Amino acid sequence: MTDTPFGSGQPFRIGTRGSPLALAQAYETRDNLIATFPELSTDGAIDIVVIKTTGDKVQDRALMDVGGKGLFTKEIDDAMLAGDIDIAVHSMKDVPTYLPDGIHLPCMLERRDVRDVFISKTAKELWDLPQGATVGTASLRRQAQILARRPDLNVVTFRGTVQTRLDKLDAGDVDGTLLAAAGLKRLDMEQHITEALDAEDFIPAVGQGAIGITCMEKDKRVNAMLDKINHQKTVVRVTAERAFLAVLDGSCRTPIAAHAWYDGNDTLRFHGLVAKPDGSEVHEVTRMGPAGVIPAESMGRDAGLEIKGKIGPDFLVTQAAELAPTTAPVKKD
What H or E segment, with its residue span, contains residue 99? Predict the structure, then answer.
């Protein structure tokens, strides 16, 4: 093995979950690093370390029933704190707004398609599903937005990898499901998309489509490397969305959606939503302002405070218990 940025024989260790999508994101990160640091292209210079998280281990229950925040990051954070990995690659929508002491988020790769997509064997559009049709999703955000418009639909908990969910759809467990466009594109599975939903009509998750990379704050060498592959416009957009989420202190029990995007080079637009899980109450907020990390953070925080003032102090606490989603049959692989 030739020398790497960490000295002779020391591989650069990338921590990741083991799902096909997580691995695709880790490989995307690896490729960005190699393009910027050609010395990392040598055999053994990069080691992808797969870490199984709580969210991966529990597949037969809704996420809100197995621990809340950090289900897909805790074990990876522990590995970083123990010195077993140099960086960790995450889907930004899985990253809690507060990270463990010593770990920070200095880098995001360029964001992909933020939209949700509808996949079905029987309907060409989500809103064309017949009355009483069953939609599978693991997201209360998606559930709330569906039921707000179509309370007649039956929404059930639907977890697993992308391929597992598609298998369940093929087996007829549900009439349709929703997934993130970015994930399907990273897996080269766009052919399964029935309909791409407009992000303004069906608001995405905070950070959807973005890859975040964490490392130890004190590791100057790794921070300098990540600075070279950081995509600043993605950071600005996701900063606004995460500020909105932080004010509301959202968890996987809270249907919260947010989307920030550039309108030209210097203007940022923002659209946020908070709802009851059954879709019976929906609150939305919009903002427009200068693009930049500091104004984006202020924009998201201000939008969150406006929503918080509208919904009252008990909304985020009490609404989580109002709807317990049914669990769809789990197809054995």
Answer: none
Other CB atoms within 10 Å distance of the CB of residue 67: 14
Q: Determine how many CB atoms are found less than 10 A away from the CB of residue 110.
A: 15
Residue type, 96: P
Active-site annotation holds for 94:
yes
Domains and CATH numbers, the chain: 116-205 (3.40.190.10)
CA 325 to chain centre: 21
Catalytic residue of the set 77, 86, 94, 302:
94
Q: Taking a C-beta distance cutoff of 8 angstroms, is the pair 33, 12 a contact?
A: yes
Mean pLDDT by 10 residues, the chain (333 residues): 53 96 97 97 96 67 54 89 97 92 98 98 96 94 97 91 91 95 96 97 97 98 98 98 89 84 95 95 97 98 95 67 40 34
Phi-psi region of 178 (alpha: psi -120 to 50; beta: other; left: phi over 0): beta
At 261 the three-state DSSP class reads strand
Q: DSSP states of 56-70 as a string?
A: HH--SS-GGGTTSTT
| 179 touches 142 (CB < 8 A) | no
Contact between 166 and 192 under an 8 Å Cβ cutoff? The reply is yes
Residue 254: which residues within 8 A CB-CB, separation 6 or more? 140, 248, 274, 316, 319, 320
Inter-residue contact 270 to 286 (CB < 8 Å): yes
Residue 93 neighbours by CB under 8 Å, 6+ apart: 180, 205, 206, 207, 208, 210
